[in-house]
Amino acid sequence: MDPQKTSQTLDRPKPDALKANGRPHIQSFIKAILNDAVIFIDDTLPTKFEPHSNKSSTSAKTKIELLQRHVSAKELSKVDWQGSKIPRHVPDHVGSEAWFARRSRHVNEQAKGTANLDEFDFALRSDHCQHEAMYTPEVYDAHCVLDWRISEEMVRESDFADYQNITMSIFEMCHKLPFPLSTRVFSVLVITATTGREDFVVVQLPVDIGTLQEAFYSNGRNLTEGSTALKRKKPIMGFVSRPY
C-alpha cells in the first residue's frame, strides 16, 4: 500500500480547510474512506479472505483467526485508479499481492479474558493512537502531527449518513524493535467513527508527511529535539514513498 502524499489529502486544520481548493473536500474524503472501510469489513473480508491458521492470545480467552487473500495482477489491473474520490497514482507496475487479516470474536461482558463493548470502544476507537501506545510495549511514542476538529455541527450539516463521533488526525507511531533492528516510525492518517449504538470503525492509512513542519520523526526534528536518547535516534520510516 503506497502512502498518500499530504498534497493529495487535506489542508492543515484551519477554518478554510473546508473549502474546495483542488484537494478532496473534507466531508467527501472522510465519507469515502469510512464507506470503503465498512464495505471491506462487512463484505470483502467474509467473502474474499480464506482461513490460514489460528493463534492464542495471552490476554484473551478466544482464538485469533489469521486470514489471507491472494490478489492476482490481472484483478489489480482492472482497478479504476482515476475514478476514486480519494486521489491515488497509477502504479508503474502492477503485480500480484498477498493480503492478511486477523479476526477475533469476544463475549460481550466485563470479565477477565474478554471485554464489553464500552471497553472495546474506549480502548480501540477513543484516542486510538494514544491507547495503542499504552497497551503495546514496543510503541515508545505516539506523536500527534495534525488533528482535524470534526464538530457535531459539521456532522449534522453534512451527509455523513449514520456516522457519528468522527475524528481525523495524523500520528507518527514509533516502534522499538529487537536488536539488531533499528527503530521504525509509521506515519498514519487515522479516521474513527461510530456507526450506531453497537458499532464503530477505525481506519489507519499510510501517509507521507516528510515535508510537514509539524512532523517530528519524518522530517528529522527528533534528532536534535527528542526528549530522550531513544527519541533522538534516527528511525527507519515504515512506509517508503514512491514517485507520484
* Total number of beta strands: 9
**Shape summary:** globular
Major pleated sheet: 6 strands, mixed
Number of helices: 6
Percent of residues in helices: 10-25%
Separation of the first and last Cα atoms: 13 Å
Q: Mean pLDDT score, rounded?
A: 86
Q: Which residue ranges are poorly predicted, with pLDDT under 50 across at least 5 consecutive positions? A: 14-22
Report the C-alpha radius of gyration, rounded: 19 Å
- List SSEs in N-to-C order: EHEEHEHHEHEEEHE
- Helix/strand/pairing class, anyone? alpha+beta
Strand content: 25-35%
List keywords for this structure.
single chain, 244 residues, alpha+beta, six-stranded mixed sheet, three-stranded antiparallel sheet, 6 helices, 9 strands, 27% strand
